[in-house]
């Protein structure tokens, strides 16, 4: 859980004309400060991460990476010290290719040196992209970077774009190898600030080609990309869909939003302890799509203790009328012979008491909305 610069701030390096929004240590420090003062750290968010464009355009004479001296005058080590002083962790970006996606120096032929550099800077997370490289090399290159990171002796979360690039180019990813090398991995395209993008990602995750859902669990996670809650493109209902579904998918929760200017309802959603608890369930099992009923999908996710579950119904329809969806308790995941209490997952208010598998229910799901339950087995 944390904050990542990319979706909201992109590669804005114009600190002369846009000093408050350019990729800089000033921006990263401000986000770190707000994660503390506005309650995000207390809610569980702990990583503050710069994506692409923190670098200088060339390496140092000894081959090492260098932060842009105007935008990061304290250097990455100085920035890490600041972030650590807040009780947070620092994430940084690099790329497997010879250049990053935005044209800065990549790690090709420098894997070991870059791993050692990140460790010396006391970085806590590395996002490793795949631009300007050969997709066929990923099965060797990403494990090599993982090896060199581990060789430094410094614990660093290693987040990979490995399957994203392969899937979008018709290559079936090796999820066994991906899980061995990476702590979490992007499965599909970059999220954009739109409902269409959110639904495209949910569709891909629901299709589950290659059964990648089975590889999720403690130490390794599927990653549908950043949260755009609080940005410009989603309605309040649609923000609930993204946050609820990212919890259903046991996804990393990486905000990409201007924490200085966030709507109160978006802030409250990002800090919703009930949805975060589902996301952070210790079993770490990814929820899967179990039914498609016209515009409505039903997803189920096992929770702790065994017998509990989260269930979500999302309505992809843009028509104005809410859907009334007939389901049985069995559809919701209830097992015959047991009784359950069904709670609204967002508020934890009781929706149905003494629920059972053979009872019929009618669930209302708003257009481009979600109805989500936390279902608990009665003792």
From TrEMBL:
Any single biological process term in GO: glycoside catabolic process
InterPro entries from the UniProt entry: Aldolase_TIM, GH, Glyco_hydro_27, Glyco_hydro_b, Melibiase/NAGA_C
Record's keyword terms, sorted: Disulfide bond, Glycoprotein, Glycosidase, Hydrolase
Example of a GO cellular component annotation carried by this entry: cytoplasm
EC number per UniProt: 3.2.1.-
Start and end residues of each Alpha galactosidase A C-terminal domain: 284-369
The protein's enzyme class: hydrolase
Pfam families found in the cross-reference section: Melibiase_2 (PF16499), Melibiase_2_C (PF17450)
GO molecular function, one term: alpha-galactosidase activity
Source domain of life: Eukaryota
Subunit structure: Homodimer.
Similarity annotation: Belongs to the glycosyl hydrolase 27 family.
Protein name stated in the entry: Alpha-galactosidase
Species whose genome carries this gene: Patella caerulea (Rayed Mediterranean limpet)
